[in-house]
Specification:
Distance between the termini: 22 Å
Strand content: 25-35%
Shape: elongated
Largest sheet: 6 strands, antiparallel, barrel
Low-confidence stretches: 1-37, 71-82, 413-438
Structural class: alpha+beta
Number of strands: 30
Number of helices: 7
């Protein structure tokens, strides 16, 4: 748990530094002089903005020196009015604040993923026989051999095939008389040979020579490469047994994995670019052919199929590939850089740069993220406005400080108004002269999940055993204080 506490402490220190720089920009010195009752100078702690008093001193929680809160031009406290922050040019330069323009343009998304080259399943062919027989000779004896359609694969002897040849030869002899019956018989005999996958060339040779052959060959059904061979010479094969598998590689598939959240940006027919580490100088253009209807439960990805032309057979099944899918989400969208957006829980804030060194925090609603680290803005900004893209973290610390001051000074806030807050008394003396009890120093667990553990004495968390810390030193301190008030009201306290 110590690394998490260190990170929280680091962030709080950065906020303190921001408040310190912005406090210095006003040029006021924290002196203990008499203050005008109409507009007193207020002092706060950079680490604990809830600590506010009308005279200089040290923070009662952490002991840091309090810094004055800057006044606006009218003499009022800057945080007590508008949310707009005014900073002098020197401080702006020191904080490294840079701005950019809210613009309109196409919102494009490039999805990068990995894939594997695969066979085109529609260009596969299995070679089988429709009869029982014995392999006499192999013309294609090795896996990987390239074949053309009609090339002989093997020669086979089969009693059924020999009988079919005899029937055809007899039908040819009887057809010389020209009778209708003889002609029909000849056609049936010829059809039987063709159904046995005997080629037209072999049938024509039999018709010419009238000589029966012990073996006939079976030809390749398509152009391609032999990717499976399950037969050897002399082997007996049954009807329907797979003997070869041939793949045409003129086109190949790419099986890509797309994360679940990116599926909405993928559509059939969408163009894609495929690159391979083994062919770094080439890019292959293709398109989305099919989106499979199932999601992998372990990887939370869906399989997307691309089809690529492969005329030179450079793409080999099994190769790994990098896939880029390009999608245009909006043709005309309002865009802001990602660096301009401050994310605080469920709220997204962008600082708008106004004239005269003034900055206004705006809550914005964001759409999808696009290529080039930009987001679509659904509402909250206008085209042409200048927004802060660097240094806004310091502005955000000042904005939060002002919010805390507004809550402390508002009569309707339900929080005691500004007074003297000392370490010894822990009691604010209100300007009206009326005394009101202040909450004691409260301690809570440094883990946000245990913010309901609140006490007015140091100790250890009864849930996790960690040492309790002051509520002002952790981000969930306000939640802990609210829990303390609720427990005090109901009579249930830790």
């Amino acid at each position: 748990m110590k690394p998490k506490i260190a990170i929280v402490g680091f962030l709080l220190c950065v906020v303190a530094i921001g408040a310190f720089f912005i406090g210095r920009s006003s040029g006021h010195k924290p002196v203990a002089s008499a203050k005008s009752p109409e507009s007193p100078t207020l002092y706060t702690c950079g680490m604990h903005p809830q600590v506010i008093q009308d005279h200089p001193g040290n923070c009662p929680i952490c002991g840091m020196k309090l810094t004055p809160i800057r006044r606006a031009a009218g003499g009022t406290n800057a945080a007590a009015g508008s949310a707009v922050i005014a900073i002098d040019p020197v401080t702006i330069q020191n904080m490294g604040i840079r701005t950019a323009t809210v613009r309109r343009g196409p919102l494009r998304r490039v999805i990068r993923t990995v894939g594997t080259i695969d066979y085109n399943e529609t260009a596969l062919a299995d070679v089988t026989t429709k009869f029982k027989g014995w392999i006499e000779k192999l013309h294609v004896a090795a896996t990987g051999q390239q074949v053309r359609r009609g090339d002989p694969l093997f020669e086979i002897y089969s009693p059924e095939l020999y009988s079919a040849q005899a029937e055809y030869a007899l039908a040819l002899q009887q057809a010389t008389d020209g009778s209708a019956g003889a002609t029909a018989l000849l056609q049936d005999a010829r059809t039987k040979l063709k159904l046995f996958d005997i080629s037209d060339a072999q049938i024509a040779e039999l018709e010419k020579t009238r000589q029966l052959k012990k073996t006939l060959f079976i030809a390749a059904p398509i152009d391609g490469f032999v990717i499976e061979k399950m037969v050897v010479e002399g082997q007996m094969v049954d009807a329907g047994m797979k003997l070869y598998r041939i793949a045409n590689l003129d086109t190949v598939w790419v099986q890509a994995q797309i994360f679940e959240q990116d599926l909405v940006f993928v559509k059939p027919g969408q163009p894609a670019v495929v690159t391979l580490s083994s062919l770094p100088e080439r890019e292959f253009q293709g398109q989305v052919n099919y989106i499979y209807p199932a999601l992998d439960e372990k990887t939370r990805t869906a399989r997307v199929r691309l089809e690529l032309p492969n005329p030179d057979h450079a793409l080999m099944p099994g190769m790994f590939a990098t896939v880029e899918l390009k999608a245009e989400l909006e043709r005309d969208a309002l865009l802001v850089p990602e660096s301009a957006v401050l994310r605080t829980g469920k709220k997204n804030t962008v600082f708008v740069a106004l004239d005269g060194g003034r900055f206004e925090p705006r809550t914005v609603a964001l759409g999808p993220r696009g290529e080039g680290d930009v987001y679509q803005v659904l509402n909250g900004l206008l085209e042409g406005e200048q927004i802060v893209v660097s240094g806004q973290f310091m502005l955000d610390s000042e904005s939060q400080l002002r919010e805390a001051i507004l809550k402390m000074t508002s009569p309707d806030s339900g929080i005691p108004q500004i007074g003297t807050f000392t370490r010894e008394s822990q009691t604010p003396s209100l300007e009206s002269g009326a005394a009101a009890p202040a909450p004691p120093a409260l301690y809570t667990c440094p883990m946000a999940s245990d913010a309901d553990v609140v006490t007015d004495t140091p100790g250890q968390c009864p849930k996790c055993g960690m040492d309790l810390v002051p509520v002002g030193s952790v981000p969930h301190g306000k939640v802990a204080e609210e829990n303390w008030r609720r427990q005090r009201a109901t009579g249930h306290q830790h």
